[in-house]
Structures are given as C-alpha cells and as structure tokens.
Design goal:
Helices cover 34% and strands 30% of the residues. The chain has 251 residues and is of the alpha+beta class. The protein has two domains: 134 residues, Heat Shock Protein 90 (2-Layer Sandwich); 95 residues, Transcription Regulator spoIIAA (2-Layer Sandwich). Strand 4 and strand 5 form a beta hairpin.
C-alpha cells in the first residue's frame, strides 16, 4: 500500500469535532482498519483536540491548529496535532489511579489516560513555538460506521432508564448531562443506563456517568450500567470504571 497523508486545519471550536471525525473515517476508508481501530482514533483525537480547543486556546474560534493523518506502514497510522498555544505536555500528567472507589474518584482527568491506553505510541515535543503531539496505532481490519447519540427515557416512580445509542462524546454529552440532572432533580434515585446501543464513549461521556453516580450515591440511590457493547466495555475497563460502577460481567 502506498503511503498517504492528509492535513486538516481546525478552528478552536468544538463544533469542528464532527468534521474531524468525518475526515478520519474518509482517511481510513479502504484501509485494513477495524471498527475498534477507527473508534480508537476518534477517541484519541477527540481527547487531544478538545484539550487544545478548551484549554490551549480557551475556545477562541478565531485561532486554529492542524491535525495530520498519515500512514507510516501498511498496518500503522500516525496522527500529529500541532498548535501554538502555551507550551504544555499532557503526557507529563500523573498516571490515573483506576483502582479508586467511586467516592474518591475525581470528575475529570481520564482523557490522556484513554489516549495512552488506546494508542501504541504517544509522543510530545515543543518545537519552534508549537506543541507537537503524535500518536500511532497499529491496525487490524474492516471498519464500521458510527452515529450521533440517541437517548430514550422510561420512568417508573423513583426509578428511570436511559437507553443510549450512537456516540457519547464532547458534542453529545451535554444533552445527556441535562437529562440526567433533570431526572435526579425530579426525585429519581435509581438511574439505569442501558448502553446496548452505545457504540462510542469518550472521557466527556464518562464524566457525565461519574457525576451521576456520585450524586445518586450521595442521596442514597444508585446508577446502574447494563448491556455494555464491547467497545464501551473496553473504555470502562481501561478507566477502572467496571469496578467503580459495580458493572457485572457479561453472561
């Protein structure tokens, strides 16, 4: 396979995430990528790019930076994010303790952890006034498609079920957070998250789950997570949330 590369210029606006995901899908089309490969690239780049937009550039949409995708072997893709925000090495953050109980867990901080676990190589350097963050992923086979989040709610007395389908990411998680807060505020004490249709979750979605679980436990209730898809279970596993949330193993 001949090497190929593509560079995308992104404004510091979270709305650009959708265009970046489409670019990743188009770049991977026709390559030996699996659904897991594409999902991992989506997640890693969402985490990196979201940090640049929200922290590096303070969501100043007049500024921009680049994401370059390139094949460096028949079975390996590299992504390079380059920005001129203040120097910051995300890989220097302390390692996340994924064994903490729910009560002791911080709300955020899982993004870089997910990147490091899903990518085979993660490198940072500061060069010519730019932050250069490179990640590499060794590929498997055959990609799958993704959809935006779909949320269905059913309720009985102080219990409610949220059935999630599609993608739970930085763009869709505020909608879920709003619904969760409304349910808890209306007296729901047992909140069941049916994840049977959820294809993808990033740290933004995990943040919503952790906040919900903490709030419910503090009020004597509980958050329950059922029917995790393999991709979502993997993210829960590497984040230590299977244990923290008390998710039962699949039958």
């Amino acid at each position: 396979m001949s090497a190929k590369s593509q560079t995308l210029t992104i404004a510091a606006d979270l709305a650009e995430l959708a265009r970046m995901m489409q670019t990743i899908d188009e770049f991977c089309a026709g390559m030996a990528t699996s659904a897991a490969d594409v999902s991992a690239l989506h997640l890693a780049l969402e985490e990196i790019v979201t940090n640049v937009i929200t922290h590096g550039y303070q969501s100043d949409s007049s500024r921009s930076f680049t994401v370059r995708l390139e094949t460096i072997a028949a079975d390996r893709i590299r992504a390079v994010v380059s920005d001129d925000a203040p120097a910051y090495n995300p890989l220097a953050r302390p390692e996340v303790n994924t064994t903490l109980a729910l009560e002791a867990r911080p709300i955020g901080g899982l993004g870089v952890h997910l990147v490091k676990k899903l990518m085979d190589v993660c490198l940072y350097e500061q060069r010519d006034g730019h932050n250069i963050f490179s990640v590499e992923r060794r590929l498997s086979r055959v990609a799958g498609a993704a959809a935006s989040i779909n949320i269905a709610t059913s309720r009985l007395a102080s219990s409610a079920t949220l059935s999630l389908a599609g993608r739970l990411d930085g763009l869709s998680s505020p909608e879920l957070e709003q619904q969760v807060n409304a349910l808890i505020g209306s007296g729901v004490r047992t909140l069941i998250f049916d994840l049977s249709g959820l294809d993808y979750v990033s740290s933004a979605g995990l943040r919503v789950f952790i906040i919900a679980a903490k709030k419910l436990k503090a009020s004597g209730g509980s958050a329950q997570f059922t029917a995790l898809t393999p991709a979502v279970r993997d993210v829960f596993h590497i984040s230590g949330l299977l244990t923290a949330f008390g998710v039962t193993p699949p039958a």
